Amino acid sequence: MMQDTSGEQKRHKPQEIAIADLLLRSITRLRDEQFQKDFGEPVKNMTNYEHVRREMPLIRSEDRCRHKNFSAPRCLKQIYAVLRIYEGHLGYLEKDNLTSARLPDVKHWTFSLVQFIRTKMSSPEDTDVQSSSSSSSLKEESAWMKKIYTHSILYNFTSFLIDANRALKHMNDKGYDYVKTENKGPKWPLEKHQHW
């Protein structure tokens, strides 16, 4: 008996894309909940705080993550470096600010994505990871400034992840072997305990 192969088979979502999607959903919900808790305003009013948000790392055109000048190794290196910065900022949120039950999930998915990307880089130890602002200096800040800093982290991390997810999907769709071109095995290692 022959199998019907005329129907399109459902494409399996690669693990790194699944993790990036879960992280983006989790951070978006956390950002929105925290904004409403801290400022008592609907999410649509978030744009009113654009002028007070602190600058934080995002994907820039020179990182070569956009389709026009795309470079998988360079883009992946930047995604890794910026994820590490936000990973440090999440420690501040956990210690000083957030009580949200979503934060452990955000930390877990951030750590998982960092580890996956690290395995694909030829020399991750060469990646410069410098925080653009020090959370330790916030101990003397007012409650208002702590709220602004929290909002800045969550808002910018969400914006960064939108671009990072787009770049990772582009790499996957185009069949880039990321950085380790000598690796002929699966593009991403399988994790023993999958949570999705």
Give structural notes:
This is Interleukin-6. The protein is mainly alpha-helical and 196 residues long. The protein has one domain: Growth Hormone, Chain: A (Up-down Bundle). The chain has four helices and no strands. The longest helix has 32 residues. The radius of gyration is 19 Å and the shape is globular. The two termini are 35 Å apart.
What is the H-and-E element order? Answer: HHHH
Q: How is the biggest beta sheet arranged? A: none
CATH class: Mainly Alpha
Which class do the helix and strand fractions yield?
mainly alpha
Oligomer: single chain
The CATH architecture assignment turns out to be Up-down Bundle
Q: Work out the radius of gyration.
A: 19 Å
First and last CA, distance: 35 Å
Q: Which stretches of 5+ consecutive residues score pLDDT under 50?
A: 4-10, 179-196
Q: What is the 3D form?
A: globular
The tally of beta strands, per DSSP, is 0
How big a fraction of the residues is strand?
A: under 5%
Number of domains: 1
Number of helices: 4
Q: Level of helix content?
A: 40-55%
**CATH fold-type name:** Growth Hormone, Chain: A
Mean pLDDT figure: 79
GO molecular function: interleukin-6 receptor binding
Keywords: Acute phase
Family: Belongs to the IL-6 superfamily.
Pfam family, one: IL6
Features:
mainly alpha, 196 residues, Growth Hormone, Chain: A, single chain
